[in-house]
Design goal:
The structure holds 2 protein chains of 2 kinds. By secondary structure, chain A is of the alpha/beta class. Chain A has 3 domains: about 1-120 and about 260-330, FAD/NAD(P)-binding domain (3-Layer(bba) Sandwich); about 125-255, FAD/NAD(P)-binding domain (3-Layer(bba) Sandwich), CATH 3.50.50; about 335-410, no CATH class. Chain A has 10 helices and 27 strands. In chain A, the strands form 7 sheets. In chain A, strands 1, 2, 5, 6, 7, 8 and 19 form a 7-stranded mixed β-sheet that branches. In chain A, strands 10-17-11-12-13 form a 5-stranded parallel β-sheet. In chain A, strands 22-20-27-24-25 form a 5-stranded mixed β-sheet, with no helix packed on it. In chain A, strand 24 and strand 25 form a beta hairpin. By secondary structure, chain B is α+β, with helices and mostly antiparallel strands. Chain B folds into 2 domains: about 1-50; about 55-115, CPE0013-like fold, CATH 3.10.530. Helices cover about 15% and strands about 35% of the residues of chain B. Chain B has 2 helices and 10 strands, in the order βββαββββαβββ. Chain B has helices at about 35-50, 80-90, and strands at about 1-5, 15-20, 30, 50, 55-60, 65-70, 75, 90-95, 100-105, 115. In chain B, the strands form 3 sheets. Chain B has a 5-stranded mixed β-sheet, with no helix packed on it. In chain B, strands 1-2-3 form a 3-stranded antiparallel β-sheet, with helices on one face. The longest helix of chain B has 12 residues, at about 35-50. Classes of the chains: A alpha/beta, B alpha+beta. Chains A and B meet through helix 3, helix 5 and helix 7 of A and strand 5, strand 6 and helix 2 of B.
């Protein structure tokens, strides 16, 4: 078996892996290796041909491929070792990575540190348990996106989209522009899951109805999808009898959530967070296995790629620093999600440094404050589960901390009187 | 008086800005429900001449994939989206193409070029 020695092995060449590899290099790692199963770098960005990427990082609206190209150009002019069409099979606790491709066969990669950047995958029909037959024409929105934008096939002529996540909304517009008809986007929650901008520019622009508090209750058709029955739901998400409506369609796109892809992490013995579906990490993005770091959608599902790049840069440079001196500060404070907060990352931080927290709220609210462990409060005019919030904790603020835990919660704003 | 509503997409507040419009002259008489001046400008623009950046794909020969993603290099009038799609559907390019290369110049006299979104 071919054996490769490297300082940093990066698993995945999507936005997380690219940024992590570049940051590791910048931090002084001599040998950086990217392992990517696709035939090219860039990950899912290559099929996200719509614009809106890079607003935070570059203050301009790039398409997915344009955003990726900037990182790919940098990787190509560096001496980062890239293995494409290479499948990682196993990562061990002592950071040996087993991978294979058609050219080299099986490879044993002995890495000083490992950065996990495998991304996420889509929830499928199986996760929803929709009654009915199993005809062709039911597929995830991201799979349809790949067919339309990369391979040049339109999966159907008349579609219904279940779930109003951003990919679903984007695909409603893409289908319409490519000449197919979208009869409805159906969302079980009382609000759209995706960004308002996408509701306006992908649905309203084309007169596509968004049916809230509704879901698909039956799939019709034997060989090919013929239609779906949709119904309104009550407060506990159960279909309301008498509200059923038959909608003809030959395609049902599912945009019903993403799941971090952590089979390799689990093999390596990394401990998981039940809420995020990704590894537990500290301020360095290091998992519970020493020398194994994680970033991007494998860690938690992001709404904007800009934050993935930022997080990956933390992971990549920390991996490199850890390799040079394992004595980098260890975490001494745990971070917890309190009232109104779904999760906070990282789950532990170092009180002697500074930290950046990423968090999501449980429900949309206006005029609230974020309470940061009683240390300070942040006013928020509007918070939404779909929009990740970043909070910076400076060294000065952390110095004031006299406990080994911080709880982040959402509270109603109290207006000062007088 | 006619009314028109536009959900502002400038910030996450998503104000539903309301316009009151003179039915005959199509003049805007009143703007309300915006929580900042940007919402006002947004609604006026959406009512008078809405624009969108169009992103799609064109066929490519000799590339790693059969299609290459493209975009307009500036926003185009919203009503022209479908017409521009018909133009881009006819375009065939040959690899190699660089990100930013012009694929269609001044598409439908909009002043916008269709440019490649990546290298291929």
């Amino acid at each position: 078996m071919k054996t490769i020695k490297t300082d940093i092995a990066v698993i995945g060449g999507g936005p997380a892996g690219l940024a992590a590899a570049l940051a590791a290099k910048e931090q002084g790692a001599a040998l950086v290796t990217i392992l990517e199963r696709n035939e090219e770098l860039g990950g899912i960005l290559q099929q996200c041909i719509h614009h809106g990427f890079g607003l935070h990082r570059y203050s301009q609206e790039l398409t997915g491929p344009e955003y990726a190209q900037r990182f790919i150009d940098e990787v190509e002019t560096s001496d980062i070792d890239v293995h494409l069409e290479t499948m990682v099979l196993e990562i061990t606790q002592d950071r040996v990575v087993y991978a294979m491709n058609a050219k080299d066969g099986m490879m044993r990669i002995e890495a000083g540190a490992v950065v996990l950047g495998m991304g996420c995958r889509e929830r499928t029909r199986g996760a929803l348990r929709i009654p009915g037959h199993r005809p062709a024409g039911v597929l995830t929105a991201g799979a349809a996106q790949r067919f339309v934008n990369i391979d040049g096939y339109i999966p159907g002529k008349e579609a219904v989209i279940l779930g109003s996540g951003d990919i679903g909304l984007i695909m409603a517009r893409r289908f319409t522009l490519e000449g197919a008809q979208v009869n409805a986007v159906v969302e079980i929650m009382p609000y759209a899951a995706g960004l308002t901008r996408n509701v306006v520019q992908c649905l309203d622009d084309f007169g596509i109805p968004l049916k809230l508090r509704s879901t698909v209750v039956h799939i019709h058709g034997q060989e090919r999808l013929e239609g779906v029955t949709i119904a309104e739901v009550d407060d506990s998400w159960n279909p309301v009898a008498g509200t059923e409506q038959y909608v003809p369609c030959d395609t049902l796109l599912l945009s019903v959530g993403l799941i971090p892809e952590n089979e390799l992490s689990l093999q390596a013995g990394v401990e998981m967070d039940a809420v995020t579906g990704g590894p537990l990490v500290d301020h360095r993005m290091m998992t519970t296995v020493a020398g194994v770091f994680a970033c991007g959608n494998v860690l938690h599902v992001h709404d904007v790629v800009d934050y993935v790049s930022e997080e990956a840069e933390v992971a990549g440079s920390a991996a490199s620093a850890w390799l040079q001196s394992e004595k980098t500060q260890v975490p001494d404070v745990t971070v917890k999600a309190g009232e109104g907060v779904r999760y906070v990352l990282p789950q532990s931080i170092d009180s002697r440094g500074e930290a950046k927290l990423f968090l999501r709220v449980t429900q949309p609210q206006e005029n609230v404050v974020l309470d940061i462990g009683g240390l300070f409060q942040l006013k928020q005019r509007v918070v939404r589960p779909s929009e990740m919030i970043q909070v910076k904790l400076s060294r000065k603020i952390l110095e004031k901390l006299d406990s080994n835990a911080i709880t982040i919660s959402v509270a109603q704003e109290v207006k000062a009187v007088g | 008086m006619d009314k028109a509503f536009y959900v502002c997409t400038i910030c996450p507040l998503s104000c539903e800005v309301q316009l009151e419009i003179e039915p005959d002259t199509k003049e805007i008489r009143k703007i309300s429900h915006n929580r900042c001046p940007k919402g006002k400008d947004y609604a006026i623009k959406e009512f008078t001449s809405p624009e969108r950046t169009l992103t799609t794909t064109v066929a490519i020969e000799g590339g790693i994939h059969p299609l290459i993603p493209v975009r307009t290099d500036r926003p185009i009038p919203k009503p022209l989206m479908h017409d521009i799609m018909r133009v881009s559907a006819q375009v065939r390019v040959k690899s190699p193409i660089k990100m930013g290369d012009i694929v269609v110049e001044n598409v439908l006299d909009t002043g916008a070029n269709i440019i490649a979104s990546r290298n291929m």
